[in-house]
Amino acid sequence: MTTFTQKDPVFVVVQLSGGNDFMNTLVPYSNPAYYDNRKFLNISEEDVLPLDGTLGWHPEMAPFKELYDRGMVSVVQGIGYPDSNRSHFRGMDIWHTCAPDEVSTIGWLGNVIEQLDPSGDNPLTGVNFGVGLPRAMSKAGVPVTSVSNLDEYGLMSGISAQQQRVQALQIFKDMYGQAVGSGPVMDYLSRTGMDVLSGADLIKVAPQQYESTVEYADNPIAKSLRDVARVHTANLGTRVFYTQQGGYDTHANQLPVQPGLFRDMSRAVNDFFADLEEHDADENVVMLIFSEFGRRINDNGSGTDHGSGGGAYLVGKPVAGGLYSEYPSLERDKWEKGEDLAHTIDFRGIYGTVIEQWLGLEAAPIVYGNFEQINPFRAN
Question: By residue range, what is the domain housing residue 216?
Fold first, then answer.
């Protein structure tokens, strides 16, 4: 299909690191099995924010529900892949590379960025906000700019920029050397490392040009999405943004921890789209929010353990909104691995949906196959 706008389509990825509990994000509040299995960690029917007669949002997701009610959120229910890996590192690695059966050094967004900017002319085609570089964006020879703090970044001397580049590369080496071997990592760094911060001079104009009436909260995900808005509205040619919010590994203390995460995330996303709307810069932006896996159906008395099927969200004005795929069954004989929500749609099909229907590229070479897609975008 054609894209929604005459402007180049822009894609923003928000990673919820640690494995978000989908059952307590979008609660099956009308299903007795939910309360039977979540004796300690349930959200009462009186507290949920109803989406329909069977599902309701966590009460701290109110700013997100507002976007959903405006038709700007497509909920992908039951996202995952066969024989889900419950390791954080390996699970996230699979999401980043689309390679469940091997350890790959090529990120899916690295492939996307290369397709969008084949000659690598613009080091800001792909921008990560955070320390280090997500595996999803890595591919030898593909320049990506990684920024931990946009305000400080624009003020850097050459020496401090060099120090941040070295720090980012060391983190990358520490994260991935053990899994794929130091050889491939060093090969990658030798070819790509000099590009990790190569956009410093270009990107520093973004904070200088930016004005907004939107007041973001003072937390990491809000600051990161504000940085995305500042760079996007500066029209520097960025097509792929990446950032993440940590803290979702809620084995213990889920009741006090998860509401704060949802509060920060849902408000930050709402503020981000309000900011883009104020700048008349929202018609060509689609956001994907994902986590590496869902969590178990039963709680453990204090939290929830690593599971399989989860949820993802496509957000933006070009999105048609609504529920996609199927909410995993809570019937015991349908549980995956005897204790997890099953996956009902493969994440590679959702990537393919964005790659083909939004970015206008061919998906199969990037996700390594043909997977079921959804149709979450409004027609042009």
Answer: 10-367
